[in-house]
Write a structure and sequence with these properties.
Length: 386
Amino acid sequence: MAVRRTDLDGGEILPMTICMIGAGGFIGSHLCEKLMHETDHTVLAIDVYSDKIQHLLEPGHPWSGRIEFHRINIKHDSRLEGLIKMADLTINLAAICTPADYNTRPLDTIYSNFIDALPVRYCSENSKRLIHFSTCEVYGKTIGSFLPKDSPLRQDPAFYVLKEDVSPCIFGPIEKQRWSYACAKQLIERIIYAEGAENGLEFTIVRPFNWIGPRMDFIPGVDGPSEGVPRVLACFSNGLLRGEPLKLVDGGQSQRTFLYIKDAIEAVHLMIENPSRANGHIFNVGNPNNEVTVKQLAEMMTEVYSKVSGQPPLEEPTVDISSQEFYGEGYDDSDKRIPDMTIIKERLGWDPKTSLWDLLDYTLTYQHKTYSQAVKQAMSTSIASS
């Protein structure tokens, strides 16, 4: 007999069918694992790739029959609406979310994250609940970044901590195409909010703050394009695996927070199973305790990877590079991105648990075990063919 599970208000949690768009990616794969291992929910997993969830799709598991993979490009497949109609809840993870693409593929970025947002329309038209993944990028620049560099107000949290219901969304000039992603994501948030106000759409919006862990992004030339530029943690992992200096864009002075993927999935799980507390809300999901500059992150990763791999660090483990050289024309950035966690703590009782040192240890152990031999082989092949 199945164990009776209850939500935060003591109500019974009944099995539901979840349509998960982007289930084969980093976040989706971890969320699918959570739902298979710890719930009775059924997942209709939609993506163009299934590599990261293939282990869940193999026959013979206790959850066999509760996860179905549908290989669908949501821009071109009429089956999407039918799968949303079959589900109780749709989770939309689909996006182009790699900073290098914001400059080099701004139109694809805008179309993918805004114009092609069919799941929102289908959920609204069919009265289906939606959990939509946005981004902390929607905040853009902090108010403090516009103050003089020597202003003491720059150290006042009121000028840099980001609050869902208070902080303005401040983007750079139009010629800085780096903001194409943030702008598209903000617009789709506004559409979702308007659908809720005018048409009764039940929604939750998630703003992730740098979720990291195993299966994140790709390693160029191994399981991604050789010319690809993944996000910062995977970029640094690639450098460490190849024994190359880590590239610090504009000196690595930007400040960020980092959240372990397992902690993040706990938060999403609470949103799924507590609709009365989550519906109609936007949630920051990050860990303000894990705040570092990008340069400090590189130094920590170098130290952790040396321990994990048994290899001594390079004499010069980092190298500075300009944002124009690394990302191309049109790049811009925010100085800080620190989340306020009041709303998610009050509504869902969620707090992150994993320290930055621990999550880097877990992640780099996985990266080394998974990729070190493949990277060596790729480097040997490249040398032999040159």
